[in-house]
């Protein structure tokens, strides 16, 4: 099997990680493309002594680190509407290294040992970085959350996670029309949306309707993430895979709110 064939199944999830890390589909996908170009240009430098997925993420990490992303890069990735001071204040409090450790373990499912390999540190330091990132991001970000989910047990679990993080839940909608109505009645600061809803309507369409009226960060929840991580069209920046771990939801919420100017503390 060629190297390309070995890496292909892991590319959607690398896009998920890159988008969550940068807060932007375009910016995240650009880093993924740069990593792939580096592999094509120098295939002999690809790590062959580890699992292909680890090698792929390690190559991405090298590209990310060498780019030396700073506060201005973050602002540019999100466009001119995001105040530079917000990005600078948050990045000063939560380092990219901490956020990498959090996303690698909680969202991408790497062990502390594998995450340590990826960011070139020790497993103990990874554990410390994850705790640091969660504590600081959760302290800084509070929001009213709209949950769009038609499975009662899943909706209850998400609601519990959201409230445990200190957020308020504006409502739980099970259809497209209900979601839009609830968003209009009480504007949320974050939307958590399933893809397939109770009346065969689409969570994606519900979100489009909501976003046509105002801007709000969105996290999609789906059993088929590969369908929304192709890099070929406008796609979600934040995506959670079903079945999910509570830590994954927490990490996604923290990261989505991290990049949202509306939640900056007073």
From TrEMBL:
- Residue ranges constituting the Response regulatory domain according to the UniProt record: 144-257
Q: Which UniProt keywords apply?
A: Phosphoprotein
Chain positions found as 4-aspartylphosphate: 194
Q: Which domain of life is it from?
A: Bacteria
Q: Which Pfam families match?
A: PhyR_sigma-like (PF22233), PhyR_sigma2 (PF22029), Response_reg (PF00072)
Q: Which CDD domains match?
A: REC_PhyR
What name has this protein been given in UniProt? Response regulator
| Native source species | Sphingomonas colocasiae
Q: What is the lineage of its organism?
A: Bacteria, Pseudomonadati, Pseudomonadota, Alphaproteobacteria, Sphingomonadales
């Amino acid at each position: 099997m060629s190297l390309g064939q070995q890496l292909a199944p892991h590319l959607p999830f690398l896009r998920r990680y890159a988008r969550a890390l940068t807060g932007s589909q375009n910016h995240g996908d650009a880093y993924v493309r740069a990593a792939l170009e580096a592999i094509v240009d120098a295939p002999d430098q690809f790590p062959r002594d580890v699992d292909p997925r680890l090698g792929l993420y390690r190559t991405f990490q090298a590209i990310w680190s060498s780019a030396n992303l700073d506060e201005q890069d973050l602002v540019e990735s999100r466009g001119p509407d995001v105040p530079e001071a917000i990005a600078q204040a948050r990045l000063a409090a939560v380092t990219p290294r901490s956020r990498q450790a959090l996303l690698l373990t909680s969202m991408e499912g790497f062990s502390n040992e594998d995450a340590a390999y990826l960011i070139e540190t020790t497993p103990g330091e990874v554990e410390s970085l994850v705790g640091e990132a969660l504590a600081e991001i959760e302290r800084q970000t509070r929001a009213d959350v709209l949950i769009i989910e038609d499975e009662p047990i899943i909706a209850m679990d998400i609601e519990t996670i959201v409230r445990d993080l200190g957020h308020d839940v504006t409502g739980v909608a099970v259809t497209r029309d209900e979601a839009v109505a609830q968003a209009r009645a009480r504007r949320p600061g974050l939307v958590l949306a399933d893809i397939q809803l109770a009346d065969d309507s689409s969570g994606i369409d519900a979100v489009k309707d909501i976003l046509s009226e105002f801007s709000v960060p969105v996290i999609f929840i789906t059993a088929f993430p590969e369908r929304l991580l192709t890099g070929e069209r406008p796609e979600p920046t934040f995506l959670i895979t079903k079945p999910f771990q509570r830590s994954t939801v927490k990490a996604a919420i923290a990261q989505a709110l991290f990049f949202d100017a509306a939640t900056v503390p007073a």
